[in-house]
Amino acid sequence: MKEPNSPDSPLADLCRQRGLKLTGQRRTIAFVLSDSDDHPDVEELYRRAVEVDPRISIATVYRTVRLFEENGILQRRDFGGGRARYEVADGDHGDHYHLIDADTGKVIEFENAELDALLDGIVRQMGYDLVTTRLSVVGRRKAKPRSRG
Amino acid sequence: MKEPNSPDSPLADLCRQRGLKLTGQRRTIAFVLSDSDDHPDVEELYRRAVEVDPRISIATVYRTVRLFEENGILQRRDFGGGRARYEVADGDHGDHYHLIDADTGKVIEFENAELDALLDGIVRQMGYDLVTTRLSVVGRRKAKPRSRG
DNA sequence: TCTGATAATGAGAAAGATTATCATTTGCAA
DNA sequence: TTGCAAATGATAATCTTTCTCATTATCAGA
Ligand SMILES: [Mn+2]
Ligand SMILES: [Mn+2]
Ligand SMILES: [Zn+2]
Ligand SMILES: [Zn+2]
After folding, report:
1. Is the CB of A60 within 7 Å of strand C?
2. Whether residue A34 is found in the same domain as residue A71
């Protein structure tokens, strides 16, 4: 266990702000999420949550990520592989996209205002308002160009 | 049944070109795919295939779309909803993206060379070669601007 | 602080999509 | 035409996620 009854995590506070009942399990999951800067799936969140409070159930993790997503606290991501992955919907962090390393699976985040604007313009021109952009690119690390000789 | 023992469909020919054994089931599924211009899931492909040859099995449809995808004949798409959807990997048709109508679920294809180039440049600048772009946007039809009066 | 209504939880069943198994059939090269 | 490797059909198994329902916990109000 780490950081037991400390002041609530940012996400736990958000939880309360949204008028959601703040149970022990939700406090734990909120803490784990606030503490993560990657894109864990539910199994991984469960593992991390159990470290904090061993009597949490995976059913509750599923329920909680769904609840948090519905309340705009979490964002669900799909990087292929059949499982949903989650990250905090951070207003500061801003919208971002993901590059997945084809060989290692590593996820690299990036932002690009030109891309934002281009997508928005394309969709608008088609007569729609953009609601969601689902974008991830898979790439393979370029071989370092060798100095010839 | 429609179009029984006619000349093979373009996809069936492709199948043969790749050295894949051309079974009756594969011929049927290839025909159904060539005949489709939308993004059917496996269940839908199965329904369409059964119209042509009633003794086809859904297991074979699953196997065949996987085989065709592995051989670059089909492209798998994910528009959410938990099922894979497929379309012919058409060289002529070119790479394209998908706009999903948030209210109706309708899928609208679009191409955009600027988007192609921008994504390629972004990925390259991060030190990667672009392998796959997974992009779909969800949009909501704009209300027609009313002439005020 | 105590109580009760209500909502959340845990454990496991169920659902839904996809893949694996295995006995039988089929395509196709010789 | 034959033989064999590969494909098929039927169905079991797998995997992720949701549902069910009896039990427990939260929290507003007394
Ligand atoms: Mn994982
Ligand atoms: Mn369907
Ligand atoms: Zn991210
Ligand atoms: Zn398409």
Report:
1. yes
2. yes
